[in-house]
TrEMBL record:
Protein name (Swiss-Prot/TrEMBL): MFS transporter
Main location as per UniProt: membrane
Cell membrane keyword on record: yes
Molecular function terms from GO: transmembrane transporter activity
GO CC, alphabetical: plasma membrane
Topology within the bilayer: Multi-pass membrane protein
Positions of region (Disordered): 384-403
Gene3D superfamilies to which the protein is assigned, alphabetical: MFS general substrate transporter like domains
Top-rank lineage group of the source organism: Bacteria
CDD domains, per database record: MFS_NepI_like (cd17324)
Keywords assigned: Cell membrane, Membrane, Transmembrane, Transmembrane helix
InterPro entries reported for this sequence: MFS, MFS_dom, MFS_Efflux_Transporters, MFS_trans_sf
Organism in which the protein naturally occurs: Streptomyces genisteinicus
Length: 403
């Protein structure tokens, strides 16, 4: 394993921690600034929207410099954003710090995916991408519960200061371990943008939005669902989220192992199974043990799609994958925001706390349908290419032999 992948994973760990830890600290932040819980929820929404906007923006701004230097600048921006959050004198300043940190998120994972894939042999690309994303999944097992504990015990500002320190470690790791990898000669921003004219790139991104949206339709409302429907104590929600994180780690590693050899079959299985588990979650959510098992499976099946979908975008974008890779990271967050909104709609409509699971199931099945469509279009294009006549070289006139 190249040590550079470890540096990328450390950066991913810090980013994953700052993205999700705020959910466990909203009451403390709201009380400190004297705002309501719904208002403090803007710290979650603002971060997600910042990722969606920042992914293409920061990647486009970085087209003139090497990928290593851009990764270092992004980690520096991440550190600044978290320090702003830790020192924020007002809620508005806290929100600004969250948005600054979020601008680094999509571009770091997008450019990092390209770098990770180039560090290994072609048949190991998905595994390398998965190893980097392991930092994000481990953050949900260690970083988020740990950061929540620190924030509740010492103060939420300390949590964000610790996350900023993690960013410094990630920055140092990238500077020391990631080789200098200049952009390919001749690839310009217009070439990166041209990748979005490829239907397969757009289909992969749509699968990302819908598939990952299916996961967060359920997980966004996991706390009230588990306490009111399953009967768990409030204190148990943290451990249920740890189970979700463990499922994410296992699914991510599974996806990285098989995506290089069986990418599309892996997507069929994981998206189809995710739809089934989410549909069953409307029933299993009322039983403690079955609910816990379902949460692990949702995390595993959801994150098993991450390496194949990210690799699919890299493969289809071909010679100019950086912008497409970064935008696909934004698509994950767009799926989060879309699913949370749809889940809230069905709860507000009076369908009950488990209704978002049906929304998630429909989103996952829709992603599966797009995967089938994508494969069908690819086969049709392959047949068309094979059937195309091969241009023959012009025949030379035979010169008479001279005796």
């Amino acid at each position: 394993m190249p040590l550079a992948l470890l540096a990328l994973a450390v950066g991913a760990f810090g980013i994953g921690t700052t993205e999700f830890v705020i959910m466990g600290l909203l009451p403390e932040v709201a009380a400190d600034f004297g705002v309501s819980i719904p208002t403090s929820g803007l710290l979650v929404t603002g971060y997600a929207l910042g990722v969606v906007a920042g992914a293409p923006l920061m990647t486009a701004l970085g087209t003139k410099i090497s990928r290593k230097r851009m990764l270092m600048l992004l980690m520096g921006l991440f550190v600044v954003g978290n320090l702003l959050s830790a020192l924020a004198p007002s809620f508005g300043a806290m929100l600004a710090g969250r948005i600054v940190a979020s601008l680094a998120h999509g571009a770091f994972f997008g450019i990092g995916s390209v770098v990770a894939a180039e560090l290994v042999a072609p048949h190991k690309k998905a595994g390398a991408i998965a190893l980097m994303f392991t930092g994000l999944t481990v953050a949900n097992v260690v970083g988020v519960p740990g950061g929540t504990f620190i924030g509740q015990s010492i103060g939420w500002r300390t949590t964000f200061a610790v996350v900023a320190a993690l960013g410094v470690v990630g920055l140092a790791g990238v500077a020391k371990l990631v080789p200098d990898m200049p952009r390919p000669e001749g690839v310009r921003l217009r070439d990166e943008v041209a990748a979005f004219r490829n239907a397969q790139v757009l289909l992969a991104m749509a699968m990302t939005v819908l598939g990952f949206g299916g996961v967060f339709a359920a997980i966004t409302y996991i706390a009230p669902m588990m306490t009111e429907a399953a009967g768990f104590a409030d204190s148990s929600v943290t451990w249920l989220l740890v189970l979700f994180g463990l499922g994410m780690v296992g699914g991510n590693l599974l996806g990285g192992r098989y995506a290089d050899r069986h990418l599309m079959p892996l997507l069929y299985v994981t998206l189809g199974a995710l739809g089934v588990v989410l549909a069953l979650f409307t029933v299993t959510a009322h039983h403690k043990f079955l609910a816990a098992v379902s949460i692990v499976l949702i995390g595993a099946l959801g994150f098993a799609t991450v390496p194949p979908l990210q690799k699919r975008v890299l493969d289809q974008a071909k010679g100019a994958p950086t912008l497409a890779s970064a935008v696909n990271i934004g698509a994950f967050n767009l799926g989060n925001a879309l699913a949370a909104w749809l889940g809230g709609l069905v709860i507000s409509a009076g369908f009950g706390l488990t209704a978002p699971n049906w929304v998630g199931a429909l989103l996952a099945v829709s992603a599966l349908a797009l995967a089938v469509l994508s494969a069908a279009l690819e086969r049709r294009e392959g047949r068309r290419t094979q059937a195309a006549p091969v241009p023959r070289a012009p025949e030379r006139a035979v010169q008479p032999a001279v005796h």
